[in-house]
Amino acid sequence: MSTPDSISDPPKQVPVTAGTPSSQAPKPSTPAESSKLSNAELKKQQKAEKAARRLQKKGDQGPSNGQPTTPAQKAQTKPEKHAKPTQPRNQPAPPTLKPPGKATATRRGSSSVPNVIDSEVKNVALFKHLYSVPRRQRIEGASKDVHPAVVALGLQMSNYRICGSNARCIAMLLAFKEVIESYTTPGGTSLARHLTSHHLSPQIDYLKSCRPLSISMGNAIRYLKELIIKIDPAVPEHDAKATLLDAIDAFISERITVAGTIIAQTASTKIVSGDVVVTYAKSSIVMQTLLTAHRAGTAFRVVVVDSSPLFEGKRLASVLASHGLSVSYSLIAGASHAVTGATKVFLGAHAIMSNGRLYSRVGTAVVAMLAYERDIPVIVCCESVKFTERVALDSIVGNELAPAEELLAAGLSVEGKEGSKGVEDMLKKWRETPGLQALNVLYDVTPADYIKMVVTEFGSLPPSSVPAVLRNLSGNG
Amino acid sequence: MARTVSMTPGLASFLRSLKNDPVEASIEHLISLLKRRQIHNSRPCAIATTQLLLQVVAEFKGKDSDILISRVRHVGQKLITAQPREMAVGNIVRRVLALIREVIEGDEVTEGSPISESPSSIQPLSTPREPSHHPGLPSSISTSSPLDHSGAGHPIDSSPHPSESSSEAISSVHRPVLTASHTSYSTAAPLATSLFGLFSRPETPSPASTPRGFQSPRHGDNPPVPIHQLKGLTITDLPKPVPDDFKADVLDGIREILDELDQVDDQIASYALDHIHSNEIILTHSSSTTVQKFLLTAAKKRKFTVLHVESFPNDHKNTRATMVTGRKNQGQAEEEEDVDDRFSPLTAAGITVVLIPDSAVFAIMSRVNKVILATHSVLANGGLLAAAGAHAITKAAKMHQTPVVVLSGVYKLSPVYALDLDELIEYGDPGKVVNYDDGEFVENVDVVNPLYDHVPPDLVDIYITNLGPHAPSYLYRIVQDHYRKEDITI
């Protein structure tokens, strides 16, 4: 952190940073370390690497006086361990993974402690339990077992290219299909035993490191694992894989696509001519509902409420507008104006807790509260795949934190005039001022009282019936 | 109109030009600044209005208080019409009017015989007093919204006002009004203080003569005005028993208002320790010097955490600047150059400040101990107008039983009742919500950007003004203390 360090830093970094990613790091000659690494160790290592990378990105000066230490050597030896014949074709070459590992090493010398403190200073105290490893934004350091499709997907998730519970779930399942297709059971074990623990879990871990899994993804994974375990070892691998792929397709269509259509059909009947429908952010299923109602010839108006930093509602608004709906758009600050005069509020869900609370994009609770205050019915459209056994009382115990920088940058970039320089200045000032923090939570929990109805593919029910549906689901499946 | 070049038009440039420009030019200048929103927000508006009225009164040459009242009223009308939603303008005009009336009445009492018993001098602010007002004025607090003033104000004044360029033109246009007010004075005043009227009237010069002090040196400066006054007086047959120095008293009073505007934040901040305890989590919204001062004062003694809602499309830059530097960065910054030292960020006092987006308000509210809000203006029923998002915040606070404290200078307290809320809300630049570069979106979607929220009184727990803390239900008394009934509708 001290200036002298930073000055002394660049020369040492040169061999690493100057080389292209594929160029070998100068110190690959330490394979003495035990080449067997447990998963836990791997995780720890990734964590450390990420912390270091974040530092690097922040422009913080690493200590750099440290010699490459054991972790670095581990990092370099790591890829050798998993050299397996089952490696997917387009696996990123192990060498690409090395330079960051090396950089990590140089940065993780004596001053790793102050670095930790530094990042904690920017963490909001109430949410300390939610700060974990920062999100992966690059592929470096990813386990080489991770399938390229999953690698790409993870990055798309971490930068919100693929965003939204359903989209992420479907994308994950499609990527898993590729993973399973390219899978061959190694000798001496069976697919049912090997696939989940050795082949799927690195993929899942990688996805987790990009962004915490959504409830729907968790449900889908659980379903998939159950399916795999039930496969009879006697079944030939080819057949077993075909069964799995079919089952995934069936899951996507039954639980998400068709369920969405059914919900859209049901929910669209709730919209009558002359309605003013308020919705928040973007939910694929609410969009489908509104479009269905529009196609059915109902004349209604839509008010899309949105918020920084994601501005998901913008896409919803433009899609609706392009279909000829009359749409108005405002931000969450104007929510109480948007709700004035509304007749119905349609909300999407990230998840519905078994105590009937809605876990959805942060701000949903504000809109629901304002609607409840004015006695406007709040209708939640939610597939059963988003139902979870978990309960939530507030939005603090369980939540997902996005990088604070996203929030800081979003506000300044909207008007465009500032340019990236203004954003950079702002972020710099931000980091330099002690005591300044920013909180960028992604979800909030809406009390069940505010919700009049939950529309699922099993029908429309009050939020209190969520546990009953869950019970049904587990009974069936 | 702006004399100062090289400066962005705003409060600072206006105040600078005010000293050199003739009053009429300054009035037009302020009107254009208000219309163009180059002066906006309550405090700059209040300061500009007070300074302008100070000039108006100082420039006023006559001895007749009613002429002064109608002159101030007329200027006020023009300002309010220029920007009806900046209620601080109207508030200041009303306060200056009340001040003039008070000075006149106070003088009458002291000048009159000792027998004259005017309750108004003892309880100057609560009892109805000298009914020297326009006949058509409602006697209760106005139920009309501020926007109606533009429509309602002019008819009352009996004649349309083309934008005059000189004071002579104004006073001539004003003659009918003057007459009306004098007539009403002549009939009503003796009723109120009949003995006084009996004895004092002979003292005053006969209608034909000029009023006392007419030959004052100032008279030479601008001859047409006294001539008009003279005409007016001859018509009304009623010279007024007002002493020479009433103007000086009024000017002093206006300067006091200026002082109040200057000190209001410090006065409010002095109550900070009564309301903030250690280790609190306080949520505040948008950027406000008043709130910043309040929290800073508390921060000297106590440690707490501040959650700052960014108020995204309209005020987020100021909010961030306030968090980083302790002061807003746009517009107002340069206007408050002189008070530079007083600003420091809360973080410098060891306070943790957390920026949160407007959407996270509900999520975080369950952990918030107190909500401290600034206002745009406060309405007489205890409701308030504040930056958009305030309603959601106060509502969420209500849902979580979190107390809401509103900080507001008395100058923001408006005698207006909110009957038609939509009318009070101003809509801002949609370009702040969606960049205009996004042509297709802007074309197809109706982008709405409200600037203010109305917060009903039941969502507020206490108000802290420079006079102290009050319950929202008590605000009407403070309104009555500061404004005269006859001035409610200007």
UniProtKB/TrEMBL annotation, chain A:
<dbReference type="GO" id="GO:0003743">
    <property type="term" value="F:translation initiation factor activity"/>
</dbReference>
<feature type="compositionally biased region" description="Polar residues">
    <location>
        <begin position="62"/>
        <end position="76"/>
    </location>
</feature>
<dbReference type="InterPro" id="IPR000649">
    <property type="entry name" value="IF-2B-related"/>
</dbReference>
<dbReference type="InterPro" id="IPR042529">
    <property type="entry name" value="IF_2B-like_C"/>
</dbReference>
<dbReference type="Pfam" id="PF01008">
    <property type="entry name" value="IF-2B"/>
</dbReference>
<protein>
    <recommendedName>
        <fullName>Translation initiation factor eIF2B subunit delta</fullName>
    </recommendedName>
</protein>
<dbReference type="GO" id="GO:0005829">
    <property type="term" value="C:cytosol"/>
</dbReference>
<keyword id="KW-0648">Protein biosynthesis</keyword>
<comment type="similarity">
    <text>Belongs to the eIF-2B alpha/beta/delta subunits family.</text>
</comment>
<feature type="compositionally biased region" description="Polar residues">
    <location>
        <begin position="19"/>
        <end position="38"/>
    </location>
</feature>
<feature type="compositionally biased region" description="Basic and acidic residues">
    <location>
        <begin position="41"/>
        <end position="60"/>
    </location>
</feature>
<comment type="subunit">
    <text>Component of the translation initiation factor 2B (eIF2B) complex which is a heterodecamer of two sets of five different subunits: alpha, beta, gamma, delta and epsilon. Subunits alpha, beta and delta comprise a regulatory subcomplex and subunits epsilon and gamma comprise a catalytic subcomplex. Within the complex, the hexameric regulatory complex resides at the center, with the two heterodimeric catalytic subcomplexes bound on opposite sides.</text>
</comment>
<keyword id="KW-0396">Initiation factor</keyword>
<keyword id="KW-0963">Cytoplasm</keyword>
<feature type="region of interest" description="Disordered">
    <location>
        <begin position="1"/>
        <end position="116"/>
    </location>
</feature>
<dbReference type="InterPro" id="IPR037171">
    <property type="entry name" value="NagB/RpiA_transferase-like"/>
</dbReference>
Automatic annotation (TrEMBL), chain B:
<feature type="compositionally biased region" description="Low complexity">
    <location>
        <begin position="154"/>
        <end position="172"/>
    </location>
</feature>
<dbReference type="InterPro" id="IPR037171">
    <property type="entry name" value="NagB/RpiA_transferase-like"/>
</dbReference>
<keyword id="KW-0808">Transferase</keyword>
<keyword id="KW-0648">Protein biosynthesis</keyword>
<dbReference type="InterPro" id="IPR000649">
    <property type="entry name" value="IF-2B-related"/>
</dbReference>
<dbReference type="GO" id="GO:0005085">
    <property type="term" value="F:guanyl-nucleotide exchange factor activity"/>
</dbReference>
<keyword id="KW-0396">Initiation factor</keyword>
<dbReference type="GO" id="GO:0003743">
    <property type="term" value="F:translation initiation factor activity"/>
</dbReference>
<dbReference type="GO" id="GO:0016740">
    <property type="term" value="F:transferase activity"/>
</dbReference>
<comment type="subunit">
    <text>Component of the translation initiation factor 2B (eIF2B) complex which is a heterodecamer of two sets of five different subunits: alpha, beta, gamma, delta and epsilon. Subunits alpha, beta and delta comprise a regulatory subcomplex and subunits epsilon and gamma comprise a catalytic subcomplex. Within the complex, the hexameric regulatory complex resides at the center, with the two heterodimeric catalytic subcomplexes bound on opposite sides.</text>
</comment>
<comment type="similarity">
    <text>Belongs to the eIF-2B alpha/beta/delta subunits family.</text>
</comment>
<dbReference type="InterPro" id="IPR051855">
    <property type="entry name" value="eIF2B_beta_subunit"/>
</dbReference>
<dbReference type="GO" id="GO:0005851">
    <property type="term" value="C:eukaryotic translation initiation factor 2B complex"/>
</dbReference>
<feature type="region of interest" description="Disordered">
    <location>
        <begin position="200"/>
        <end position="226"/>
    </location>
</feature>
<feature type="region of interest" description="Disordered">
    <location>
        <begin position="108"/>
        <end position="172"/>
    </location>
</feature>
<feature type="compositionally biased region" description="Low complexity">
    <location>
        <begin position="113"/>
        <end position="126"/>
    </location>
</feature>
<dbReference type="GO" id="GO:0005829">
    <property type="term" value="C:cytosol"/>
</dbReference>
<protein>
    <recommendedName>
        <fullName>Translation initiation factor eIF2B subunit beta</fullName>
    </recommendedName>
</protein>
<dbReference type="Pfam" id="PF01008">
    <property type="entry name" value="IF-2B"/>
</dbReference>
<dbReference type="InterPro" id="IPR042529">
    <property type="entry name" value="IF_2B-like_C"/>
</dbReference>
<keyword id="KW-0963">Cytoplasm</keyword>
